[in-house]
Predict the 3D structure of the following.
Amino acid sequence: VNRDAFLGRLRERLKAGIPENHVRPWIPLDGPPPAVRYAEPFGDLADRFVTRAQRVAATARWLPNEPEALAQFIRDAQAQSGATTAIVSDDAICDAARTTLSESGATLLDPTDPAAAARAALGVTGASFAIAATGSLVLETSRPDVRYSSLLPPVHVAIIRASQIIPSPGDLFRHLSARFPAGMPQSLTLVTGPSRSADIEMQLILGVHGPRALWIAVID
Amino acid sequence: VSAHPSTPIVPLRRRTAAAVQDATLRASLAGATASLTARKAAGYAELADVEELRAAARATRSAIIRRLPEILDRLTTNVAARGGQICWASTPGEATAYIADVARRTNARRIVKSKSMVSEEISLNHVLERMGCEVTETDLGEWIIQLAGETPSHILAPAIHKNRQQVAKLFQETHGVVVSDEPEALTAFARERLRERFLAADIGISGANFGVAETGTIVLVTNEGNGRLVTSLPRVHIAVMGLERVVETWDQLDVLMALLPRAATGQPISCYLSMISGPRQPLPNGSTPEFHLVILDNGRSDLLGTEFTEMLACIRCGACLNACPVYRQVGGHAYGPVYTGPMGAVLSPLLATTRRDYGDLPQASSLCGACWQACPVGIPLQDMLLAHRRRAARDMGFVERTMWKSWAGAWSKPASYRASLAALRSAIGVGRLTGSAPRWLPFLDRWTTSRELPKPPRTSFRDLWKAGIT
């Protein structure tokens, strides 16, 4: 059917009013929905982020402010997975990682080509933001390089600055136009830990369709 | 080939009787529902005031239902502004015909799907397979039941009824290779097989947990990553959603997203939360991605203005299933339709496609209200189950109605009430003595197959009272 017929039917049904449940009535809100409040204070945002990311099986570290620490972190991720091919997203924060990977012999593939990205063993991205409450990364996945680097290889390494960490999902959802002044990106993805499933006997398995391992370096 | 939608319906009593005999099923169910319920409690614990949030969520959803036409209008206007195409589907037939058209126009042969209950509701796989498409479910649980030719038994964990040995056997039978029955190995096998399908697919079909009207965004809550692959690898993405799965603003979504994953699996947030606004940018090779949003009615609009209106507030978390003493014993397949447990027992008898065959589902409830307590958006499910029963009572046949009426009449007068109890006392007494009671006592035969008849007292309480209890 067309839009007008579809919506007209809804308007028609709503015209007569909706009967109240007198036993368990609902109370309308006065204003906008209340903020989501947490039982415990967060303390330091970077600490909270790292703790939370680790809790969902990410390897998250707050690195000391020296280039060698990040290089070592990248080499560790590479060594642990035995990756010889990698894709790196086009973020300035990933430049050092690109250098480290090629110095240690990895072949860098085109991160915007899905066929190439699917062959890569390791993907490196930055992030738009990170969320302390949940240990999540906020990725602008409308960009093909970010989309594929964070999704197709079995290992995803993300590099973020401590200043990018915001307290809670609400600080993203409720301030989207401030966070993305150029407008809502076509695709945004919150990534919280490596891909997982518990579909077989409720047993948690990592790395179903997305990355098996997620490494997060928090710098500066 | 997917399970055929029009399998003959076995009566509810026989379906549940068969389910409670299945020891494997009951063991899986007991473990899964208990574990999900415990995780939910842990997930809630880190929120400062869950009850405040539940009340806000209920108010939010109730207010949204009252503004559905305006919100759907705004959502679709914004989706269209971003280059997406909209299908308004009153019936499953209209939805599947639209999707089939897209497949035909784009010469699509290979279709990958992430989990979508609405696509099950409209038997989408069946339609696409009939026209020669290869449809692959990519959620691990959904893939398992697709290979087995079954339907989901839980809206969250579709293969909750199968254990690892059964899954290993299934993979072996369908792929001719031996797979270890370790969940790790089974999952790795699925990853490898399904990755090929993702890369080769022409169309990706997903559901939608929410449509956010403010920006024309579809929100997908997933854990495995298949939802991301389905929506970002194939050139064409089709999202199907029920007309009620909308919010107007992102602050509403914030409240609902704080509750949905916690109520579903106890996770503070799902592994992946995808926010998709329209089609992707054109690719360097010149191909133009498409985004289609299919919005389904299928009888949902009939709920508006009735005592079942608030059922449209449901956010499909599955918490009521895990809390329900009936679901915990019999599982989803005994209910029959796609939507099961308490929410399904309310909704399935109302949806156009299932209302004829599943009118008896509201009987599968103890009216204990555990579903309402478990519901993150506070839907009074047991009041609606009761409303269903009230409707059934109104519609019952002449014989049954006369019977209940005469019983009510007799027990409304002291004399006939006393006489009927005296008669029952002696009848049960005789029955117990001769051991033949179950067969000739009306209505008690079924009751006594699993229970002893109580020993009736010699004198009634009323007589004792009159004589003065000493």
